[in-house]
TrEMBL record:
Pfam family, one: BPD_transp_1
UniProt similarity note: Belongs to the binding-protein-dependent transport system permease family.
Record-linked InterPro entries: MetI-like, MetI-like_sf
Organism: Paenibacillus nasutitermitis
Compartments it resides in: Cell membrane
Protein name, entry field: ABC transporter permease
CDD domains: TM_PBP2 (cd06261)
Keywords: Cell membrane, Membrane, Transmembrane, Transmembrane helix, Transport
């Protein structure tokens, strides 16, 4: 049946519901439309009152200023961008691997202090990020990893939320399925890689979204742990564009372009992970 045929077969209630959902989706997409338009506004449109929602005279000058004019500074924009991409990539990999391994051990293996470890993880979920800022700084200083990429990555590796989410999903995997793999000759790590990991892709995709958003927008590590300007990340650079009286006006165009660059990776990752979640949930066989 074609799309037009399906629309014709809808009842009145279904048609009204579809119209309402389309209207809600259009309303929720307005911030995305604004961010896309705001990045291409010329300087005079950025300060119009009342402000305009759609750009009238699109320009690439904001992106040009962001990439080219900052290249003459002590630390160019490309360095901040490179640091953010590198830190986000390695942190995402480290969190997924460490959290998946920890969740598998806590879910399917037996050892002495298992309940104590799980209770500690549940307790860690109660702490706000601000309450652990000082302990994080002391640990980073103790390991002497200030002004290094490890100083960016280490605070995110131990993720109680990631361990909890993945463990809850692994709990749904029948033990008989894992035992059948071991009977066929699979070792423990083969069972984990070939059975557990593919079946937990929905949880891993969710963890990937949460972790990437946290790392990509983090300014704490650059502010507290990095004294070397060349080791700071893109969110810190964007914050420096609009902070202070000197940059509150002059840096707005570059800040708009940088805001778009900060937003697009989150959008792309979310769309990609959303598709993976739906496909994996349909074919994983986990009920």
């Amino acid at each position: 049946m074609t799309v037009i045929g399906k629309l014709r077969s809808l009842t009145l209630f279904e048609t009204l519901l579809l119209i309402v959902l389309i209207a809600v989706a259009a309303f929720l997409s307005l911030p995305i439309v604004f961010i896309l338009n705001h990045a291409f506004k010329p300087f005079h449109e950025l300060f119009l009152f009342p402000p305009t929602f759609l750009v009238r005279q699109p320009t690439l000058s904001n992106l040009y200023d962001l990439f080219m004019r900052t290249s003459d500074t002590i630390v160019p924009f490309s360095r901040y961008l490179f640091n953010s991409v590198l830190v986000a990539g390695f942190t995402l990999t480290a969190v997924i691997l460490s959290s998946s391994l920890a969740a598998y051990v806590l879910s399917k293996l037996s050892f002495g202090p298992k309940k104590l470890v799980m209770g500690t993880i549940m307790l860690a979920l109660m702490f706000a990020p601000e309450t652990v800022s000082i302990p994080r700084y002391l640990i980073i200083s103790w390991f002497h990893i200030n002004n290094t990429y490890f100083g960016h990555i280490l605070p995110f590796v131990a993720s109680p939320v990631a361990v909890f989410l993945i463990k809850q999903f692994i709990d749904q995997i029948p033990r008989d399925l894992l035992e059948s793999g071991k009977i066929d000759g699979a070792s423990e790590h083969q069972v984990f890689l070939r059975i557990v990991m593919p079946l937990t892709m929905p949880a891993i995709a969710t963890v990937a979204i949460i972790t990437f958003q946290g790392v990509w927008g983090d300014t704490q590590a650059s502010t507290l742990f990095m004294q070397d300007e060349t080791m700071k990340t893109l969110p810190y650079f964007i914050l420096s564009l609009t902070s202070g009286m000197a940059n509150s006006v002059a840096g707005q165009g570059m800040a708009a372009a940088a805001g778009l660059l900060m937003f697009l990776p989150n959008l792309v990752l979310f769309l990609f992970a959303q598709k993976r979640i739906m496909e994996t949930m349909m074919h994983s066989g986990v009920k």
